[in-house]
Amino acid sequence: MKKILLFLFFMTLIAGSSYSQVNNSFLSIDKSDLPGSRIQNIRTFNGTSLFGYIDGGADLYLEYGFSSLWVSEIILNGGKYKTEIYEMNGPEEAFGIFSISRFRCKSRPALTPFTCQTKYQLQICSGPYYVSIINSTGSKNDSIASLRIGEAIVSKIENSSVDLSGYLPGFSKETLNNNALLVKGRLGINNGVPDLYDYFNGVTGYTMAVLKGNDKTTLSVKFNNPADLASFAEMHKWDMEKITTEPFKTDSGEVVRKLSDRHLIIEIPQ
Amino acid sequence: MKKRSLNRRKFFTIIGAGSAAIALRPSSIFAAETVQPKAKPSTNIKDAGRIARNSMSMPGKYPGQVVLITSSKSVVDDEPVEKEAYLMIEKAVKELSGQKDIKKAWRTFVSPGEKIGLKVNPVAGKLLSTSHAVTKSVVKQLIESGIDKSDIIIWDRREMELIDTGFTAENYPGIRIMGTECKDSEGSFYDKEGKLYGEKNIDKDWYYWADVEDVYDSETIPYMINTGKYSYFTKIVTQELDKIINIPILKNAGGSITNAMKNLAFGSISNTGRLHKELWNDTCAEVCAFAPLRDKVVLNICDGLRGCFNGGPGANPQFICNYNSILVSTDPVAVDRIGYDIITEKRIAEGIQKSANPDSLKFLKMASELGLGISEKEKINLSVIKLI
């Protein structure tokens, strides 16, 4: 009996430690990175503890692949800036969140190839990080201060950023960086390209880059394996024999071609 | 359950038996299920119907009636204006109740001596919280209609978020501010015995059982309170309050909305992380069907002065907009249905989507089938008041 109890005790310990395996290293900044600033109300979140920060909103980050979050209020030049540094599981995941969160960028400061500034927010994607800096007045001073904070954060990131050219060959880097969306599942679709909800309803095991144009929307779908691609084709009642590297027009009007046994390019006319 | 006919112990016995039967199903049944196409996880929703409804049960006194009031003066420089919010709420409550006198109008829903909870939504932080303009207006009108300050409680799931967004004793003198999940003055979620403060605030006699669970790490547990297949109702709704006035904020959740139903459902129970993925629609509808919410929510005042059309339920400033609107209804389903149209129209105008997706209304259809309100647009009686 004692042995059984001991065994159960150790199993509980092992299980407990595996539940607690969380990322405890956070990319952050302090006063030395940003002279003249005061950094307060620092909070950190790991894994599913993101529910404690944004509750239902956490699901979207978790679907993409979330690692950790550092949040603070930075006081700089008399302004207050809510600064969030999300570490995602990789550059694609970070770009994914960035891509569906940006909207009508007022400017694209050259901090990184993926920077979007609007009146109240500076958004940056660099390496596996998505950074959001929110101000409350929308003034020019706030824009300048946000950029200083952004620079301080970006200077600490050494990882390389996402390269979208593999998704959509033939498009310029600028077009892709400024306009492409990247989604990994149902919530990404819901938030980034809701009109494709039915088109991907029930589909799993893919990462997709989307580029909306004036006359068509181009989808680049990388499936986890050839079987997932085949299921998707079957769902849309496409004849797999006709899906080759050459463009094929389906009965419903899309133009489909295969880049590999797990990668489709689909053009949907507007 | 003060002043209520509900017998919690009796109810617990009933639902306990039902759920135990589900929980104790032989493992072979589960094994058989694994080879079948994935079925939706079952829940204890049938237990909710075992408590008799009363005259105030959802959808309340005025099923399917919604008042939408708008004013261009309600938001100035992106700040909600309390004076205008007060006027809008006054007119809308009078319109809904059919009373000319505001005191009589409020007394249609609440009475002196009752403990009245205002369920706000601070989850997205200062940028996108239920506004103080609306909340303070409701408090003022309650007091003016004879409700004692000490009987009003502003509540939500997390005390920390209430404080962060300004729902404090300083801003609301004499009003109690309560959250289910809370920290002590040293910032700890745990008391000296190592027990979560939140655990003391959940009522294990009342629960939403669902055949789905998630593993939470040590950092997540304080925000979930418990693991497993049970989500317990907060004592705020089961024990503290007699009536609830629901004050959500008009936000999108993907192509759907997070408004009256979601604010109540996910704001009143523990262990919600497990429910978002497979049972979001079910939870929004079914949790509201349990007596502590179904029989206590007397009014929904949807704060649409400022809201968002994308990026919700979080706050992304570029998606926050001024709807300059307040929606008032006793029927949370109908108010959500009208709110859905407002958000969808904005999303289409902003180029987020081209058309409405009927799938987004699933939780409302489910709620309607549970008798909680009217989800069909054509059956909703919408009164529109435009102030300016």
Describe this structure in words.
The complex is a heterodimer of chains A (270) and B (388). Chain A has eight helices and twelve strands. Chain A is an alpha+beta fold and 270 residues long. Chain A has two domains: 24-154, Protein Transport Mog1p, Chain A (3-Layer(aba) Sandwich), CATH 3.40.1000; 164-269, no CATH class. In chain A, the strands form two sheets. Chain A has a six-stranded antiparallel β-sheet. Mean pLDDT of chain A is 90; it is low at 8-21. Chain B has one domain (8-386). Chain B is built from 15 helices and 14 strands. In chain B, the strands form four sheets. Chain B has an eight-stranded mixed β-sheet with strand order 6-5-4-9-12-13-1-14, with helices on both faces. Chain B has a two-stranded antiparallel ribbon with strand order 2-3. A two-stranded antiparallel sheet of chain B has the order 7-8. In chain B, strand 5, helix 7 (159-164) and strand 6 (176-181) form a beta-alpha-beta unit. The chains are: A alpha+beta (270), B alpha/beta (388). At the A-B interface, helix 2 and helix 7 of A face helix 9 and helix 12 of B.
Summarize this structure briefly.
The complex is a heterodimer of chains A (270) and B (388). Chain A has 270 residues and is an alpha+beta fold.
Number of strands of chain B: 14
Spatially, the strands of the biggest sheet of chain B line up as 6-5-4-9-12-13-1-14
Structural class based on helices, strands and sheet pairing of chain B: alpha/beta
Task: Output the strand order for the largest sheet of chain A.
Answer: 1-2-3-6-5-4
The biggest beta sheet of chain B is recorded as: 8 strands, mixed
Low-confidence segments of chain A, given as residue ranges, are 8-21
Number of discrete domains of chain A: 2
- Based on CA atoms alone, the radius of gyration of chain A comes out at 22 Å
Percent of residues of chain B in helical segments? 25-40%
Figure out the total of helices of chain B.
15
Q: What's the CATH first level of the largest domain in chain A? A: Alpha Beta
In quaternary terms, these chains amount to heterodimer
| Strand fraction of chain A | 25-35%
CATH topology of the largest domain in chain A: Protein Transport Mog1p, Chain A
Radius of gyration of chain B: 20 Å
- Written as H for each helix and E for each strand, in order along the chain, the element string of chain B is HHHEEEHHEHEHEHEHEHEEEHHHEEHHE
Low confidence ranges of chain B: 1-36
Overall mean pLDDT score of chain A? 90
Largest interface, C-beta closer than 8 angstroms, per-chain residues:
A-B, 37 and 45 residues
